[in-house]
Amino acid sequence: MDLKKIVFFETDGEEKKFLKKRFNKDFQLEFHKEPLGINNYELAKDADVVSVFIYSKLSEVVLQNLPSLKLIATRSTGFNHINLDAALKRVFRVCNVPYYGENTVAEHTFALILALSRNLHRAYVRSIQGNFSIEGLRGFDLRDKTIGIVGAGSIGTHVIKMAKGFGMNILVFDPVRNHIFEEILEFKYATLEVLLANSDIISLHCPYNENTHYLLNMDNINTVKRGAVFINTARAGLIEPSALYHAIDSGIFSGAGLDVFEGEEVASDENQMLSKNVAPEQMEAIMKRNILLRRENVIITPHIAFDSVEAVERILETTTLNINSFFRGENYYKVI
């Protein structure tokens, strides 16, 4: 019997050990640290399955050059890095990991909120420099502040519950409203405009798609309550870059906690800045990111909101379940 070949991209050593234990001798496994894309699709030319994370770009050209492919198993909830129309044309199946880090991302969201509200990042830098002055480090309480949560899915729901624990008022913008849910958790639905105008903290938790592209933009950024704290642990494309920089520079945002940012896929390896393969807009995004890093009221983390021991194990367990179930003809977390 021919072995079924699975090629994993964007995997480290620990993930490789974990995955090797989850597949039997019917499978041939191959691992690569780099993302799958236009420059290296030959690595998967004879793969029955490719498993990728968010930095891989499965364009139509890439998919056209994978003649043996049967299944794409992304180890993420989102799948905007995969050209689904092209996959449908080629009769590929696509699966994802819809649930793995709801509490994990919500916890990181509050880590950013607390760091900004109490100036933890600034205090830390001072202390390691031997400066223990408290001047300019006064923070603010979360109790009785209003948090605006954009997107009340699994992650947003955990943020709502945590916010209740801090005694916060909660506004939620979501196109789907559940009023029983609203009553039980004691929050209020609002339009995006009302949320922006009345929130002391704005936190994004919606998926990125054509309907949410630049949800916050230059047309509505000036409706934000002046001095609000902005948190994005979802996707960079939810806010227009010019709107983000304008809001920080003008004081519309008094602070920002960003786990996702424009150009992050290139910034993950700064050496790529010298590569001729980096597009000018990506270079510009990295330079803007570096300018933000010099701002004391901005915290940037390298897309690690999902990255806890427990969450990564859940991702890998679900991915192996998806792949094994696909070949057994059983149910799996199918996108298409």
What value does the Rg take, in angstroms? 21 Å
What is the end-to-end distance?
Answer: 28 Å
Based on Cα principal axes, name the global outline: globular
Continuous helix count: 12
Strand order of the largest sheet: 8-7-6-9-10-11-12
Most strands sheet: 7 strands, parallel
Structural class: alpha/beta
Can you identify the CATH class of the largest domain?
Answer: Alpha Beta
How many domains, as an integer?
2
Quote the beta fraction. Answer: 15-25%
Helical content band: 25-40%
CATH topology of the largest domain: Rossmann fold
Which parts are unreliable, with pLDDT below 50 for 5 consecutive residues or more?
none
CATH architecture annotation of the largest domain: 3-Layer(aba) Sandwich
H and E string: EHEEHEHEHHEHEHEHEEHEHHEH
Question: What is the count of β-strands?
Answer: 12
What's the mean pLDDT score? Answer: 93
Can you identify the CATH superfamily of the largest domain?
NAD(P)-binding Rossmann-like Domain
Layout: helices, strands, pairs:
Layout: E1 4-9, H1 13-20, E2 27-32, E3 49-52, H2 60-64, E4 71-74, H3 84-89, E5 93-95, H4 102-117, H5 120-128, E6 146-150, H6 154-165, E7 169-173, H7 179-185, E8 188-189, H8 192-198, E9 201-204, E10 228-232, H9 241-250, E11 253-258, H10 264-267, H11 280-293, E12 298-300, H12 309-328
Parallel strand pairs: 1-2, 1-3, 3-4, 4-5, 6-7, 6-9, 7-8, 9-10, 10-11, 11-12
Helix pairs in contact: 4-6
